[in-house]
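A favour between colleagues. Tell me how you read the following sequence-structure pair.

===
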Amino acid sequence: MSQAPIRFGMVGSGWRSEFFARLARALPGRLEVSGVVTRSAARAAQVEAEWGVPAFRSIGELRGTRPEFVIASVPWQITPEVVRDLVEQRVPVLAETPPAPDAEGLRALWAAVGGVTRPGGGGLVQVAEQYTLMPGHAARIALVREGVIGRPTSVQVSSTHMYHAMSLIRHTLGVGFEPTTVTAQAFIAPLADPLSPRGWSDDLTPRDATTTLAFLDFGEARTGLYDFTDNQWWNPLRARRIVVRGSLGEIVDDTVVRMADPRTPVESPLVRRRTGTDLNLEGSEVHHISFDGQVVWRNDHLGASLSEDDLAVVDLLCRTGAWVRDSGPEPYPLADGCQDHLLALAVEESARTHAPVTTALEAWATR
C-alpha cells in the first residue's frame, strides 16, 4: 500500500518557499504543502492565488493544518527566532541554510534547541542542506565510501559557495567537528557576467569579481580547497569542478582513476543515462549514474522531468518525511549545519584579516 504524501508547512513566502511549493505541485503523490505563514494579508492572498496553497499569518494557524514538519524559510537573521518558536511547540523543523547568521548566533541557537529530540530519535531541528544529495555529488560520495580510491585525503571544490561547499568537503572526506585551520585569500579580477537570477544581461562588459580561495586543514592528512568566484552558480564563463583525492586514486569531476593491479592504472567514467536527446521520447531527465556497469545513483522520481538540483531537494524532503515517520535517519542534523557555517565564517574571517583562523571544538560536537 502506498503511503500518503509527505505533508509539510512553511514559514516564509520568498523565492525559496516558492521552490518547495513548485516541487510539491510536480510530485502530488509524494509531497503536499499544508500551508504557508507569510507577513501580510496581501501577500497571503497572492500566495494562495499563485501557489494554490493555504496561507496564514501565524504558526499557530499553520499547526492547525497538521503538517508533519515545517520548513523555516526566512531571512538569516530571523531563522533562529522561527526555529525556537517551532521547537517550543514541539514541531519538527527543517531550517534553511544557514541556521543562524554568525558564530554567536549558531552557539545561541544550539544552546536553545540542540538538545531537543524527537520521540523517534534525532534532534527536532534539521537543516535543508541538499548538495550532498545532488546526483553527481551523491555518486562520487558513494564511490568514496566504497573505498574505490582508498582513504580520501583531499577535496577541491569550485562549484558553490560557503556552507554548501563546506558540506561537500566535510561529507566527502568524512570529517566531523574537529578543530580546523583555515587560510584564505580573496582576489579581484575583471570578468563578464552575462547571466544572473534576473536573466541575460546582454552586456559583456567585464567588471570586478571576487574570487575566494581557502585551504582547510582538518588534521590527520585531510585537507580541503575552496575556490569560488562571485555568481559562479549562474555565470556560464566559470565552470564547476570537483577533485577528490585518495590514497589509491582520485576522482576528477566524472572520471575515476585507480589501479587495476600494481602496474595498471585505469580510468572509468561516471556515466549519466539522460533521456530526451535526438529521437528518445522518454522525457528530458537523468535516469541514473553508473560506474563500470554498477548503478551508483538512481532517480526515484522518473516522469517529473526535474533538474538535478530539484531532485536533490525532493530527496531531502522525502528523507525528512521518512525521519518524522520513524522510517529513516535524520536527513541533516543541526550540528552539521552549524559546523558547515562555522567553517564558512572562518573562510570569510581569514580572507578579511589575511591570517589563519582555527575553529574551536564547539558544543554541537558532542551531540
Observations:
- The CA atoms of residues 184 and 347 lie 6 Å apart.
